[in-house]
Each structure stands twice: as structure tokens, then as C-alpha cells.
Amino acid sequence: MRAVKNLLVLYTGGTIGMLETPEGLAPAGGFEVRMREHLAARSDAPQVQWALCEMNPLLDSANMQQANWLAMRDAIVEAVEHGGHDGVLVLHGTDTLAYSAAALSFLLLGLPVPVLLTGSMLPAGAPDSDAWDNLVGALRLFECGLEDGVQLFFHDQLLHGCRASKLRSEAFDAFAALPRHRDGERAAAIPSVLDYRQPRQPVKLAVLPVFPGLQAEHLRGLLDSGVQGLVLECYGSGTGPSDDQALLDALHDARQGGVVIVAISQCPVGSVVFDTYAAGSRLRDTGLVSGGGMTREAALGKLFGLLGAGLDVQAAEHWFALDLCGERA
Q1: Is 120 within any annotated ligand binding site?
Q2: Does the annotation place 61 within a ligand binding site?
Q3: Per residue in 193-214, is it b (16+ CB within 10 Å) or e — as a string?
């Protein structure tokens, strides 16, 4: 851990910098001026040298797409490799903040600087807003020193980038890391193909919860759309309708056809352990890969990082089962 001397603030949009428009709150430019004015007026402002880069376009994070993750990754790598920055603060909307933190965790494997994401539930300048508290709190962490890797800071909580989820839509303590079981063996080293210097490509991914009434044709319709990876949110410890042979056949055929299918628990505090029930074992036998106690955000972000690097099915499944940055251990 070391104090950051030359911080990049990457402003992507989100509530923290929104201003009122006739249609409602919307992302607005010019946040650097507002941020410098606020810090200059504070006697306790952190003493961190920083520069701000404004993404184009600025986003309400409900509009976040894979292309935006890739653009953030490119901006961060450029700032570190060529801009001399030794830390990055990403200002981001809360709706997809945990998804972006997870995706960046796998897009930036091995990056030798800390990356911290934060945002706010109310815009900076709004009465009783949490915006400046979150932003100044994040700056203080850079001033004191942070470990390398991706983390999320919100409402005085520092959370692992792959373990955070948004649990509340209105309260300031909107994010938490739920105590999901970790069981993955740590990878001995990060392969060069997954290093942060490796460019990534968009990937066709999907998330599907198991529910009473899920039919094989529902699953086949999704898989026939060209999906390369699927996060299947199972019941409890990784169970599903194991007496529906058509559904099991659809999963098996998809795996044989080159789709990576990973299983996580849809329980907020849960973990996949296929062998607990026969209903789980039958799902596993179709070719599903256990996500253990990974969150939806982490599983989706990891699939994106692996398949986006061009890994084939076997390699993607191998690395998915191992812990790469603390998501499974």
C-alpha cells in the first residue's frame, strides 16, 4: 500500500454529477470545476494531486454497455501506461456500479495501481447529498494508501470490486458485500492472455434465473440468439428442475455447441455446491461450471473478461473455476 501522488479522476457520468433538466436529472459536464471549487472551500480537503478526464458520452449508468466498460479500461490503461498516473478514481452511477466494478476487476488484472469506484445517491449540490462525502472519502483513501486492484467505496465502506452488490435503491448505504461462501483455488499466476494489457472484445452474454415454469424452449430461444456465455441463477445450492429432460438436454446441447454456462445461487447469501442434492448433480452433469459463492455481477464480469480475451470454452471454464483476484477465495 502506498499513497497516490498523481491521481486520475475518470468521470463517467452518474447521479453524482447530474443537473436538473426539463426531463429530469441528467448527466452534465463541467464536473471538474465544481469538484475543485468544493475542495478549495474545505479546510480538511485531502492533499492529493489529481487530474480529471471526462468520458464521452457521459452516462446515466442505467445505459451502461460492454462498449463503455472497454472504453473505461482503455482510458485507465492509457492513464497508467502513458500518463504517469499511479491511481484511478472512477465516478460512476449507482445502478450498474457493482457490475462495472466487477467487469473492471477482470479487465485490469495485474494493473499495478489501485482503482476505486464511487458515486452517490443524490447529486453533488443537492440538499443533504452524499456525493461530497463519498468523493472526499475516496480521495482520503488514496492519500493514505490503497492496495492495487479494483475496489468500491460507498458510505464509508470499502468493498472488494467483485463482491459488492447494490441492495437498496434509496438509502445511502446502498451497497454491501454479502457473506457468500468462497471456495476457489487461487490461480498461481495470471496468464498473459488475461493481463490488463490484453485488449478485449464485446461478448454476447446472458443471465437467466431458474424459476417454476422455466421451459426448454425458453432456454433454447435464448441460446439460439448467439449467446457465448450464460450465467444460470439456480435455486439454493445449485438446483433446478432436474426431472425435465428436455431442459437438461437444452443445457447439454448448448455446452456441446460451445456455450460456457456457469451456475450461481440466486439466494442473496448462497453458494453452489452441486453434490448436495441429486437435482444439483443432474444440472452439473449437463456441463455447467460452478460459480461457488460468486455474485451475479462477478460471474457476468468474469465471463466477459475471459471470453472477451478470446479464450475457447475449455480455457474459459478452467480459469472461471480458479480465483483470479479474490472473487472466489
Answers
A1: no
A2: yes
A3: ebebebebeebebbbbebeeeb
Q: What is the pTM of this model?
A: 0.95
For residue 146, list its beta bridge partners: 2
pLDDT in tens, 49-96: 999 999 999 999 999 999 999 999 999 999 999 999 999 999 999 999
Catalytic residue annotation: 15, 94
Set of cell numbers at residue 84:
504517469
Dihedral sign from CA coordinates of 203, 230, 153, 35: positive
Residue bearing cell 448436495: 276
Distance of CA 174 to the CA centre of its chain: 15
Torsional sign, CA 260, 219, 299, 104: positive
Flag whether 94 is marked binding.
Answer: yes
Q: How far apart are CA 171 and CA 253, in angstroms?
A: 44
Q: Domains of the chain by range and CATH?
A: 7-176 (3.40.50.1170), 192-320 (3.40.50.40)
d(Cα 56, Cα 159) in Å, to the nearest integer? 27
How buried is 243 (Cβ within 10 angstroms: 0-12 exposed, 13-18 middle, 19+ buried)?
exposed
